[in-house]
Predict the structure of CoA transferase subunit A.
Amino acid sequence: MNKVVSNADDAIHDIQDNATLMLGGFGLCGIPENCIAALVRKGIRNLTCISNNAGVDDFGLGLLLKTRQIRKMMSSYVGENAEFERQLLAGELEVDLIPQGTLATRIQMAGMGIPAFFTPAGYGTEVAEGKEVRVFDGKPHLMELALHADFAIVKAWKGDTMGNLVFRKTTRNFSTSMARAGQITIAEVEELVQPGELDPDNIHVPGIYVHRIFKGSNYEKRIERRTVKI
């Protein structure tokens, strides 16, 4: 299988309205900038987006929120996006807020083929509404279902033409799990190399999980908040 495509527009060519997408990254760190821009250009609508956060007003998933292409957000942290807040309060955006550990584990379980698991997180809150509860060691736990997506879109530091991926430091965050949980996984990389050029011991996502890969460009790599020590 030839997994290499020429650019982001080719990579997302078959994503249609009403698709469910996983988008890797944490805050603005390690997000698939090129693919998000391509989704904006394509103009598809009614997307369900699974991401740890919702970007900021003019970057990341905030671009898709600005153009009203997202119908539902499934996230754990959304505090940096004023447009997200406005749409939520106006009833224009469906939101499923998920505890961060639960979100990460639901994605991991999908990649591992495990349909559900139990966690104490969220018990006694709105998160528990409608969910099965069981008691383990005297403590109530919620049953959470594995979280799947039509497409998983991630950004890695390096990848080879077979789809093997290497991430730098914290950019792997949600991305390594998401790459295993999508029916189709798309990877954009800063460097695209030939098979054999990556150290097998350092590969974070094996190529068997990746369906399309391309070399991205013009990464901004924004920082949400720059903090310095005085």
Notes: The chain is about 20% helix and 25% strand. The domain at 8-114+148-215 is CATH 3.40.1080.10 (Glutaconate Coenzyme A-transferase). The chain has a mean pLDDT of 94.
